Amino acid sequence: MNIYKATEENIRKAAGIIKSGGLVAFPTETVYGLGANGLNPEAVAKIFEAKQRPTFNPLILHIRSFDQLNLIANSDDLIVEKLIKKFWPGPLTLVLKKKEIVPEIVTAGNLTVAVRMPANETAQKLIDYSGVPIAAPSANAFGFLSPTTARHVANQLGEKVEMILDGGNTEVGIESTIIEISDEGIFLLRPGGLPVEEIEKLTGKLNIKTGDAKPNSPGQLPFHYSPKIPLRFFDEVTEEEIRGKKKAALFFREPENEKEYVLIKCLSPEGKLRQAAANLFAYLYELEASGAEIILAEKPPSEGLGIAILDRLQRASKRY
Ligand code: TXA
Ligand code: MG
User: Fold this and answer.
1) Is 176 contained in some domain?
2) How far is the centre of ligand 2, averaged over its atoms, from the C-alpha of 224 (Å)?
3) Domain that holds residue 139
4) Ligand 2 being an ion, which residues bring their Cβ within 5 A of it?
């Protein structure tokens, strides 16, 4: 069994796992999180692998200090300062402009990053001892309920996580409230553990932008990032679609016909899905900026993380 009481010693052990690129489940005041080093793309890829998600969702980075906040996000905004002062540490997640250092797989290609400073002592120590922001979604398997005990985590994720820190029942029991602060305004993305009314005392009425607020334009939602040029699969593209166009290519493993492309990227020369997932969004950015007019992509094997990679590429291919 991989459940360990959240003692000082075990939290230090867990921090060692995070530092070496492994996965640790840990309590927060809201729900248990499945954590990895948020600055290490391959460690973050393991999160998606363990959750068996068919898609990539952007993840929340859990931090402990304002230095860490400034490392990963742009927070110099009066309202952001006020919200932080009033509600952190606590069940409020802020979506802010991301900084370069945040790997693309954490934000699923978004230019924003979700950040939260948890109030739970075990979570705080784990971040302190790891010395890095910890990327963590709720520690449930895809399609299952969010876990509020270490046992829930063990039942859903079993041995896929190296260590589960047991800090008893979580106090809040539902996920954090998420708001996005951008030049366009302040938006509620997910109601959660911090009542909206509390937030509105500081911000005034929030605009609503939850998952289904714009059902007809998923491409417009920030978490449905796609490249700005068309993407087609090698085995589906027609002559007509590529005639006379500058092309870039995204291979899974080995490139072919190298001369035809202005830029070629290989998701994983070693054929490893974890590495491929870690590279996906960063490579899409490079291909989009290559001067090509169309990206041709090879389909990854449709298993494990390959399913999420394929899903993302399929969304991109339907965009234009
Ligand atoms: O209470 C919580 O927030 C828990 C604990 C572990 O901290 N975490 C959690 O994470 O609920 P998760 O991954 O299950 O849900 C995070 C939500 C997702 O729906 C994701 O789409 C959204 O946050 N999100 C993350 N980054 C985003 C971004 N840059 N823009 C918009 N939405 C974002
Ligand atoms: Mg979740």
Assistant:
1) yes
2) 17
3) 3-208
4) 138
CATH label of the domain that carries residue 37:
3.90.870.10
List residues near ligand 1 (CB under 6 A). 28, 30-31, 33, 57-60, 91, 93, 95, 107, 110, 112-114, 116, 136-138, 175-176, 178, 189, 222-223
Ligand approaching nearest to the C-alpha of 222: 1
What is the reported pLDDT for 142?
87
The pair of three-digit structure tokens given for residue 57, joined into one six-digit string: 């969702």
At 237-289, the pLDDT tens digits run 999 999 999 999 999 999 888 889 999 999 999 999 999 999 998 899 899 99
User: Would strands 134-135 and 60-62 be described as parallel, antiparallel, or unpaired?
Assistant: antiparallel
Q: Do 300 and 194 share a structural domain? A: no
72 and 172 within one domain: yes
Q: Whose CA is nearest to atom 3 of ligand 1?
A: 176
What residues are paired with 265 via a beta bridge? 250
Q: Is residue 145 very low, low, confident or very high in pLDDT (cuts 50, 70, 90)?
A: confident
pTM of the model: 0.91
Judge if 196 and 273 occupy the same domain. Answer: no
Which ligand 1 atom is at minimum distance from the Cα of 30? Answer: 1
Question: Once rounded to an integer, what is the mean pLDDT over residues 100-106?
Answer: 97
How many domains in the chain?
A: 2
Kindly list the distances between the CA atom of residue 301 and the CA atoms of 7, 41, 190, 285, 304, in Å, as whole numbers in the listed order: 41, 20, 33, 22, 8
Residue 216 has which token pair? 């007809």
Q: How far apart are CA 313 and CA 320, in angstroms?
A: 12
Task: Output the CA 144–ligand 2 centroid distance in Å.
Answer: 9
**Tokens 């609503």 found at:** 208
Ligand 1 mean position, distance from CA 143 (Å):
15
